[in-house]
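Exam revision sheet. Question 4 asks you to relate a sequence to its structure. Input first:
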Amino acid sequence: MKCSFCGCEFNETTAHGCGPCPLHTTCGKVKCPNCGFEMPKENLITKWFRRRRRGFGKGQKEGRGLRARKGQHRHERITLSQLSNGDEAVISQIDTSDQGTLNKIMALGILPGIRVTMIQRYPTFVFQVGNTRVTADENLVNKILINR
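Answer key, C-alpha cells:
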C-alpha cells in the first residue's frame, strides 16, 4: 500500500490503526508508519489496478513496460522554492522528516497530487493551492517536492 500523503510504501497487514482505540480491528483504517496519516484500507480492485499499472499483471512480458516508457517525458522533481513566478506544477511528495513542519503543511491542506502556482518568491513565498493563497517561509517551501 502507498501512503497518499508522504508516498511511503508499506504492507497494510503490518500497519496498525489507532492502538488504544477499541474499534481498531473493525474500523477499516490504516496508519502510515512513516508519517502517521490515516487512510482507508485498499480494496481488491484498487490493488489489482495498482499492480497492473506497475506491470505485474498476468500475460505481461518483461520488457514491455520499459519500451512503453521510453518515449514518455520524464518529470523533473524539484522543491517548490525553485519554481519561478507564474509557473504551475503538481505536488508529488512532502518531506516528512520534521514532524512540526509536517503538521503545518497538513493544517494548510497541502497534499500530493494537488496543482500549485507560484505567485511571488520575494520577500516571502506566496503560492496558490486551489483557490487558497498561502504565504510560507523558505523552510516550509523546501519540504514540498513538485513535478514540473
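Marking note for examiners. The domain at 77-147 is CATH 2.30.30.90 (SH3 type barrels.).
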